[in-house]
Amino acid sequence: MKEIRMVDLKGQDKRIKSEIDTAIQEVIESTAFINGPVVKEFQNDLENYLGVKHVIPCGNGTDALQVAMMGLELKPGDEIITTTFTFIATAEVIALLKLTPVLVDVDPDTFNINPDEIRKAITHKTKAIVPVHLFGQCADMDEIMKIAKEHGLYVIEDACQAIGSEFIFENGERKKAGTIGDAAGVSFFPSKNLGCFGDGGAIFTNNDNFAKLMRSIVNHGMTIRYHHENIGVNSRLDSIQAAILNVKLKYLDKYIKARQEAANYYDKKFAGHQKLKIPFRVKNSTHVFHQYTLVVDDVDRDELQKFLASKNIPAMVYYPIPLHLQQAYKDPRYKEGNFPVSEYLSKHVISLPMHTELDEEQLGYITNTLLEFIK
Ligand SMILES: *Cc1c(COP(=O)(O)O)cnc(C)c1O
Asked: For position 283, what pLDDT does the model report?
């Protein structure tokens, strides 16, 4: 059996190695390492894939979220509602810009931000909602967009884990994750569903004015060289990374399908087990399975992880500590017990190997080994 990895980048890249090598070599030959034509090419191809008006490539997913917030001209003291059960980057950029993060709990089935909790958290200072499409399934964008409209709030989607996922509105309309709100951030970190060979990211928006400002912000706040109209940052997608991403974008739907097939296999083996809750699949979103995350009950989760490791099966906990209990984010507004769903999940979730290269032999071994421990 092939070695089981949490993410098998080597196996994936081997299949497209010659295409990738050619793309990289072309950039090296051209020496257009920054803002070369291939960056624009990738931008256009991604805009077409997503059906979004503007893709603004940038340095990483964290920057994408930061630039989105800067481009919406959010100001210190503005309250930004987001989930406490996410990767730190979501709240980090809110704090860095001196905006006020207002944390809310998640839905116990989907792990995504709970719209009822968003409503309760709105004050006269609230300016934006940042839903995270956690693990690859969209948050309830029908409800979130409704709330935003009622209260005049921006919606910034953290789509870092959900590129290619589709939300299906009540009226049947389908839109891709990251193209629904006012702006979105996505990450091309190597282990993300569309990953490059280093750091990379992008902002999406359908608004021409926001796009113009955001495009200037990622490049030192200038549109004409050495004329700085805005305070910006230096956050660009390298040409080499764009060239790699443009090759991989062609395979994204295939990659998504491979992940979904692995998830279906896991589901079939685990469904109905008393101590295991398989990922809940909502009707209004596809799931691109950035992670396959179980909730275990009446099982020592950390012992399970150790047991799997002893059988050469990596498994990870995303995320062991909700944001409101993180040291750097200690805040008199929050204490343990405030967000019971997120706190419960942080103690009971476990994510299994999930990538495009899992074969039946590996999946069979993983599921049988896990069931052997759970009984
Ligand atoms: C990966 C990730 C980010 C940050 O992306 P980077 O490219 O690593 O900066 C932000 N939010 C979520 C939910 C993520 O998974």
From this structure: 97
Confidence (pLDDT) at 35: 93
Q: For residue 3, is it within any domain? A: no
The answer to whether position 48 is within a domain reads yes
3-state SS string over the chain? Answer: CCCCCCCCHHHHHHHCHHHHHHHHHHHHHHCCCECCHHHHHHHHHHHHHHCCCEEEEECCHHHHHHHHHHHCCCCCCCEEEEECCCCCHHHHHHHHCCCEEEEECECCCCCCECHHHHHHHCCCCEEEEECECHHHECCCHHHHHHHHHHHCCEEEEECCCCCCCEEECCCCCEEECCCCCCEEEEECCCCCCCCCCCCCEEEEECCHHHHHHHHHHCECCEEECCEECCCCCECCCEHHHHHHHHHHHCCHHHHHHHHHHHHHHHHHHHCCCCCEECCCCCCCECECCCCEEEEECCCCHHHHHHHHHHCCCCCECCCCCCHHHCHHHCCCCCCCCCCHHHHHHHHHEEEECCCCCCCHHHHHHHHHHHHHHHC
- Going from the Cα of 153 to the center of ligand 1, the distance in angstroms, rounded, reads 23
For 99-118, the pLDDT digits (tens) are 999 999 999 999 999 999 99
Q: Among 65, 87, 90, say which to mutate for ligand 1: greatest number of ligand atoms within 8 Å of CB.
A: 87
For the chain, the domain total comes to: 2
Q: Which domain does 95 fall in, by range? A: 9-104+111-249
Is the CB–ligand 1 distance for residue 132 below 6 Å?
A: yes
Identify the domain boundary among 230, 249, 268. Answer: 249
106, 161, 238: which to mutate for ligand 1, most atoms within 8 A of CB?
161
Q: What is the CATH number of the domain that holds 258?
A: 3.90.1150.10
Where among 208, 230, 249 does a domain terminate? 249
Q: What is the pLDDT of residue 256?
A: 98
Same domain, 187 and 58: yes
Same domain as 194, residue 137: yes
pLDDT value of position 337: 97
**Ligand 1 mean position to 68 CA, how many Å?**
14
**Residue 94 Cβ contacting ligand 1 at under 6 Å:** no
Together in a domain, 222 and 174: yes
Q: Which residues of the chain have pLDDT under 50?
A: none
pLDDT of residue 375: 84
Identify whether residues 184 and 224 lie together within a single domain: yes
Residue 192 CA: which ligand 1 atom is closest? 1
